[in-house]
Amino acid sequence: MNNAFLPVLTISTFIVLIWYSFSIVLNSSWALDKAERNDQKLSFSELVHDTWSQKKPKLPTPHQVGYEMWKTIFDKKVTSKRSLVYHGWITLSATLAGFMLGTLLGILLALAIVHDKATNLSVMPWIITSQTIPILALAPMIIVVLSSIGFTGLLPKAVISMYLSFFPIVVGMVKGLRSPDLLEIDQMKTWSASQFQILIKLRLPKSIPFLFTSLKLGMAASLVGAIVGELPSGAIAGLGARMLSGSYYGQTIQIWSALFTAAILAASLVGLISIIQAFVFKRMMIVR
Amino acid sequence: MTDETVISAQSLDLTFQTNDGPVHALKDVNLNITKGDFISFIGPSGCGKTTLLRVMADLDQPTDGTITINGVSPKAARESRAYGYVFQSAGLYPWRTIGKNIRLPLEIMGISKSEQKERVEKVLKLVELEDFEKKFPWQLSGGMQQRASIARALAFDADILLMDEPFGALDEIVRDYLNEQLLKLWHSTKKTICFVTHSIPEAVYLSTKIVVMSPRPGRIIDIIESDLPDKRPLEIRDTKEFIDIAQRVREGLRAGHSYE
Amino acid sequence: MNSFFLFSIIFWIAAWTINIFIAQSNLAKTKMVLPPILFGVSLLLIWEASISAFDVSPVILPAPSLVFIKLVSSVSILWVDFVQTFVKGALSGYIFGCSAAFGVALLVDRFKFLERGLLPIGNFMAALPIIGTAPILVRWFGFDWESKSAVVTVMVFFPMLINTIQGLQMSDKIHRDLMQTYNATSFQTLIKLRLAAAMPFIFNGLKICSTLALIGAIVAEFFGSPIKGIGFRISTEVGRFALDMVWAEITIAAITGSLFYGGIVLLEKVVTFWHPSQRGRS
Predict the structure, then answer these.
(1) For burial by CB atoms within 10 Å, which of A1, A19, C5, C131 has the most?
(2) Which residue in C121, C132, C254 is closest to A8 by CB distance?
(3) Which of C11, C104, C128 has the most A C-beta neighbours within 10 Å, making it the best mutation to test the interface with A?
(4) Same domain (yes/no): C204, C86
(5) Which of C264, C251, C266 is closest to C74 using CA atoms?
(6) Are the beta carbons of C181 and B104 separated by less than 8 Å?
(7) Do C166 and C259 sit in the same domain of this protein?
């Protein structure tokens, strides 16, 4: 970890530098047009200043995005429709609800698949196939159909989140529950352990590392599901809605700050799981 | 140092820096290997026998002392492809056939296609794997894989063969057979072979010289010259001469251990 | 409850019983093929039967037969949408993004410093909702397929990058040592050893990205599109409650996605035939 710090810092700095220079390049045509209309000549420093402070730039600078985020996270009341905390919370709640449902469904399915041969043979191929299907294409339909039978708000988005997050969980847990080798299972059998005992004492503990990998994937997928689920609902609330309305009105800074908030949210959620993972691994003496 | 000297080490030292502090892998190692020798390095794990071989191959670098291969540094020797190296596991590339595996070093060394073909056939014959050129490594038994790996080391006809416990993972019956084959091969090719093992009978059966080593720090305890005849049927292991040499090796190993 | 519904339930029970029987048998070939087909068919039957039994409005869920009729009758529209979304948007972006990532991985591989820096950043980026860049890229590259291609490029880049970088580190130490004893150049080691050893990882990346590519192209169309494309059609037809058309598009997307994925799996089998995971199956 430590020896990655300097390289990561270097590359991050490099990315920020590139970003600022692209801001100049991409926003300059607008700045030059405006100057020409006003019969002005822009010096280079004036050009830079202009491209870094436009209201609707093609590419806002990091500090513009940062300022917008600061303004809409800390300076607005959290109940305000312009507060990113408000929108973030709406997306987060759908994400978490979908994630919980997806995890539950995923683990139950994995248990069925591992313990019942018929389920394994008939359902597992479909689960793998369904991973290759662009499930998100279903999102608009789920939203509209569920709202037409009276469900709006959190539930439809949570359903889409669940849909996206349960796949990695099933696949990971099936792998994990099957990870004990024949020798370990035979050892259990020599003690005439029941299927349930084998599950509790052997399969579940062995599946924990797989579970955490899946949880991280599932959490990231949940967030994507919640964001996309907000798109067709008419851009009312949530980070996805902020992106869509920003896209309608050309509020590029708004899009970018919603995107960054989503990124921070994803990173903290996945980070949270990593922390829990580290704690659990330490308790279980799992060495990676 | 005579003209016949192939490998020569003077007061060789090597210390690895690990997370648990420094490990003294080799201490004051002095050794002369003459052309055509079959040298075995024997000792318990951690005695530095593999490290010594890796130093000869320029895979590890000594922290002190000098070592020359054919009169030049290990690096220069490696660059002139002076030796073939056989690892404990066969290390064949799973995506290449046996024939293609043997071709690999030849491709890297830029040897012409026609000569590649010729050499592959020749070495496959040497290790009696003619019918397996088109097979993939994972379709062969462990003993056959190891033979293929020896063929690969022989393919570019280096004068020196460095072998790191090549038969360590094989069962005793296969090992006997391969030992016999290796001796035959040594006779017919006149190569200098450095052979790491932890089996006393194997070392005595194969070698002209047995280097007994001891751990912590890794060092040479004794160098035993073998006066067994060149022709060695497997039965030689029941003769008094053989048992006497084995006894000396065992005593050397025990002396090394009494330090602890 | 009508008789058709009853029939579908009986069919489902019968199919499941047959599957249990097959699961306990020794018919290796049948085991792989028949149970999923039986399961899929009984699911479709129950769906079809439930629609008529419970009088479900086609605005909520159309029967599979209705979807099939719509699919057959609108082949030309579906084809146009398929070309727009998959060929122009997803496939071009997939090829561009994956090759760019592969190139960067090879470049980064030369410099340990860059590699140490890029791997954590790549891992981080791969977990982010990159799909959120869609509105931005649609603004930059316009409504047509170019913006979709750009979204897909960005989406597939990081998963492909980290898989390739990790794959290049996957060669066995013994194989690398061997290369050193042959005095192989780093280029020779890359070509003859490390790229081959990286193939299982590269294909893993290609598989993940194939799914992402279609998702990216479809979702990017929600942010603006000319009047064609799978995503465009889904979002407009949903608005008109023409759910049979929506399902027809979803069917096309599903088939495309599965075939795309399946094609890469086939290629993987050919290229990495030597890998234990592939050997075990044959």
Answers:
(1) C131
(2) C121
(3) C128
(4) yes
(5) C251
(6) no
(7) yes
Neighbours of chain C (3+ CB pairs under 8 A): A, B
Q: Which two tokens stand for residue C94?
A: 């997939």
| B157 and chain C in contact, CB less than 8 A | no
Half-sphere exposure of C183 (CA within 13 A, CB side): 18
Of A248, A242, A277, A232, nearest to A262 (Cα)?
A242
Which residue intervals of chain B bear CATH 3.40.50.300? Answer: 1-82+160-260
Looking at the fold, whether C142 and C180 belong to one and the same domain comes out as yes
Contact assignment for B83 to C192 by CB distance below 8 Å: no
The answer to whether residues C47 and C161 belong to one domain is no
The pLDDT tens digits for C219-262 are 888 888 888 888 888 888 888 888 888 889 888 888 898 899 88
ipTM reported for the complex surpasses 0.90:
no
Residue C230: give the domain boundaries.
Answer: 70-279
The answer as to whether C183 is a domain residue is: yes
Q: A123 to each of A115, A116, C33, C37, C262, how far by Cα in Å?
A: 13, 11, 12, 10, 18
Query: What is the CATH architecture of B1-82+160-260?
Result: 3-Layer(aba) Sandwich (3.40)
CA angle, B80 as apex, B74 and B86 as ends, to 5°?
70
Assign residue C171 a region (left: φ > 0; alpha: ψ between -120 and 50; beta: otherwise): beta
Q: Kindly state whether B83 is in contact with chain C, defined as any CB-CB distance less than 8 angstroms.
A: yes
Confidence of residue B56 (pLDDT cuts 50, 70, 90): very high
CB contact under 8 A, C182 and B57: no
Range with lowest mean pLDDT among A76-85, C165-174, C183-192:
A76-85
Query: Is C184 at the interface with chain B, CB within 8 A?
Result: yes
- The C residues from 24 to 53 touching A (CB cutoff 8 Å) are 24, 31-32, 35-36, 38-40
Query: How distant, in Å, are the alpha carbons of A59, A114, A198, C70 from that of A192?
Result: 66, 19, 10, 57
Question: C43 is written with which tokens?
Answer: 């699911």
Task: Tell me the per-residue pLDDT of B146-192, one tens digit each, with 9 for 90 and over.
Answer: 999 999 998 888 889 999 999 888 888 888 888 998 998 898 888 99
Q: Are residues C49 and C145 in the same domain?
A: no
CB-closest option in C115, C118, C127 to A266: C127
Chain C 60-89, CB below 8 Å of chain A: which residues? 60-61
Interchain contact, C61 vs A145, CB within 8 Å: yes
Same domain flag for C85 and C186: yes
Residues of chain B contacting residue C276, judged by C-beta atoms under 8 Å apart: 138
- The number of domains in chain C is 2
Q: For residues C47 and C109, state if they share a domain.
A: no
Co-location of C166 and C251 in the same domain: yes
Helix pair angle (A117-131, C3-24), 10° resolution: 110
Across the interface, of B81, B94, B156, the residue whose CB is closest to C274 is B94
pLDDT at C282: 38
Mean pLDDT of B11-26: 87
Whole-prediction pTM value?
0.81
User: How many angstroms separate the CA atoms of B153 and C177, rounded?
Assistant: 13
Hey, which residues 190-219 in chain C have their CB within 8 Å of chain A? 210-211, 214-215, 218-219
Whether C130 is in a domain gets the answer yes
Residue C181 contacts B where some CB pair is shorter than 8 Å: yes
Cα B98 to the center of its chain, rounded Å? 21
Residue C211: closest CA among chain A residues belongs to which residue?
A132
Q: B58, C272: Cβ pair inside 8 Å?
A: no
Instruction: Inspect the structure and tell me whether chains A and C have 3 or more CB pairs less than 8 Å apart.
Output: yes
The answer to the question of residue C122 being in a domain is yes
Three-state SS at A206 = helix
What b/e string do you get for C19-55 counting C-beta neighbours within 10 Å, with b at 16 or more? bbebbeeeeeeebeebbbebbeebbebbbbbbbebee
In a domain, C64, yes or no: no
